[in-house]
Design goal:
The protein is built from 16 helices and 19 strands. By secondary structure, it is α+β, with helices and mostly antiparallel strands.
Length: 542
């Protein structure tokens, strides 16, 4: 998930610019809050909150509160556990039978049935609906007909989906995929009510889901108010009366509001405050490992970055970055220098392999200079790193990365930052392929599998392959790993694919990111999940 924090994520999807005064004022509950409600920093989502069209973190936060799917990732361990699924059975890792729990409804009273899932997945996969997460349905049989690589779709529904009865449906994949059930906690696979289809415009204005919260109101550029849904049938009921998500375009302003008592929760402590946050907040500061990786991605649609020898240039740039110095001085140990393209939260059994990047991630100015020269030099003579300037303290680290590259190469103009005002504009430029140099690419895992750190980002035509990198050897290894029914063998094969990413330096891994948050004295039970998102339903107020 893009926008890390996310991931990637991940974390700053903001469109409107608020004056600092507009972010504070009043009680910490915020405008529209009352009773045992809390206020939290946030950013406007890039797109309307359709589950299959949300692939950035700010929108993802809301979906995680408003929807529940077949699986849910444990907020402590990240393990995929059954939620609406009573069972997901298979004998061959290709044909699955899904049975739903009884008694589950949407917040408008409509029952959640097998058709709620099948219709939602068909909508998400359809080419004509232009959903950003359509790719996640690509392993279901018939995807090539509803979402062909070229031309018009020749079918309206996925042939691999079949409703058996109100609580049962079957899924047939186009190849074996042993980890398929573990992907089903991702929001793209959420069920949708009939209201989504019968009055789509009204649903977009006020989305209706089946999770512990219901959206009460949303004013773009200002705030979203969510209320506890008293009729929620799940065991993870909200421990508070609601959450007001307040839009900030500057994480420093959010932190100031927290300290002034005008905000309850900040889930992105700015780099400028990290040296003071422990003394400011004491035990109300969280710094926990998360499935987030920050990288520099490249526009392979620009021939200058896709020419013969450019892999040497990218590797040279990687070796010109002093990751250890930057993580110590800028991030005060809330980041760890990356040595692979996944995350330590996966564990070694899950695919994390410390040191897989090898010397290509070591700081070596002499070798960096040599490789860049051998590769034909930096395209245009200067690296311009594009990033969103609204949140996430990106300016500080981009400047530090450029200073490191400039020092290593002995050229004060070898690298400069290229800020874009908002995250939404930044993502739009990426999506429109309007970049001519490397760009910030934070990735927050969608689910805790090594596959999720590789396939969505580097597979040909994948949903978050923003730079349009393509490599047949990588694709073949991913396909082979997905088809492997033995988990350990699948992980090993994915690591072989990761080595192809390394050998081509498809993206430069920078650092693994911890989740950080600070909260007011009004709150208790505050925690971040392995995706670095607050577990809002567990927070208590007062």
């Amino acid at each position: 998930m893009r926008g890390a924090r996310h991931a990637t994520g991940a974390v700053c999807a903001v469109l409107a610019v608020l004056a600092a005064a507009g972010c504070g004022g009043g009680s910490a509950g915020g405008s529209g809050a009352g009773g045992a409600t809390l206020s939290s920093s946030w950013g406007d989502p890039q797109n309307p909150l359709e589950p299959a069209n949300t692939n950035e973190v700010q929108g993802g936060k809301v979906l995680d509160m408003v929807f529940r799917g077949l699986k849910r990732y444990d907020p402590k361990t990240g393990a995929a556990k059954d939620m609406l699924a009573q069972s997901i059975d298979t004998k061959d890792s290709r044909n699955f039978t899904v049975r739903l729990r009884s008694g589950w409804t949407f917040s408008n009273g409509e029952k959640v049935t097998a058709r709620s899932f099948v219709d939602a997945w068909n909508y998400g996969a359809s080419l004509r609906n232009n959903q950003k997460n359509a790719y996640f349905f690509g392993y279901i049989e018939g995807y090539d007909k509803v979402h062909p690589a070229t031309g018009s779709q020749s079918a309206d529904t996925l042939s691999g989906l079949r409703v058996v009865d109100d609580r049962t449906f079957t899924v047939r994949l186009n190849q074996t995929f042993s980890s398929f059930p573990d992907t089903l906690g991702y929001a793209a696979f959420a069920p949708l009510p009939r209201a989504f289809f019968s009055d789509h415009a009204a649903w977009l204005r006020k989305p209706v889901g089946d999770g512990p919260y219901a959206i009460e109101s949303y004013t773009r550029g200002s705030q979203m108010v969510l209320r506890k849904w008293d009729g929620y049938p799940g065991a993870d009921k909200a421990h508070n009366d609601g959450v007001t998500l307040k839009v900030y375009t500057d994480s420093n302003t959010a932190y100031t509001d927290l300290m002034a008592g005008n905000l309850d929760l900040v889930d992105d402590v700015p780099a400028a405050q990290l040296k003071n946050v422990k003394s400011d907040l004491g035990g109300r500061y969280l710094n926990t490992p998360a499935g987030i990786l920050q990288t520099l991605a490249f526009p392979y649609y620009d021939p200058a970055w896709n020419r013969s020898g450019s892999a040497k240039v990218r590797t040279g740039l990687s070796m010109a970055i002093n990751r250890g110095q930057i993580t110590d001085t800028i991030f005060h140990r809330t980041r760890t220098p990356a040595t692979d393209w996944t995350s330590p939260v996966l564990g070694t059994a899950g695919g994390f392999k410390d040191g897989l990047c090898g010397s290509a991630c070591d700081y070596d100015p002499a070798r960096a200079k040599q490789l860049i020269k051998e590769g034909g030099g930096i395209p245009g003579g200067q690296v311009k790193i594009t990033y969103n300037a609204d949140t996430g303290s990106h300016k500080e680290w981009v400047d530090a990365v450029c200073n490191s590259i400039n020092n290593a190469l002995g050229d004060d103009n070898a690298c400069v930052g290229n800020p874009v005002g908002t995250f939404a504009d930044f993502r739009n430029r990426i999506g429109q392929h309007k970049l001519s140099g490397p760009f910030r690419a934070g990735w927050q895992m969608d689910y805790p599998l090594i596959q999720n750190f590789l396939q969505p980002l580097y597979y040909t035509g994948a949903s978050s392959n923003d730079g349009k990198w393509s490599n047949k050897d990588f694709d073949k290894l991913v396909d082979r790993a997905n088809a492997e029914t033995d988990t350990a063998k699948a992980v090993t094969t994915f690591q072989e694919a990761e080595k192809v990413v390394r050998d081509n330096m498809a993206a430069i891994p920078l650092w693994y990111q911890n989740g950080s948050a600070g909260y007011s004295q009004r709150l208790s039970g505050v925690a971040l999940n392995p995706f670095s998102v607050p577990v809002y339903d567990e927070i208590k107020v007062g």
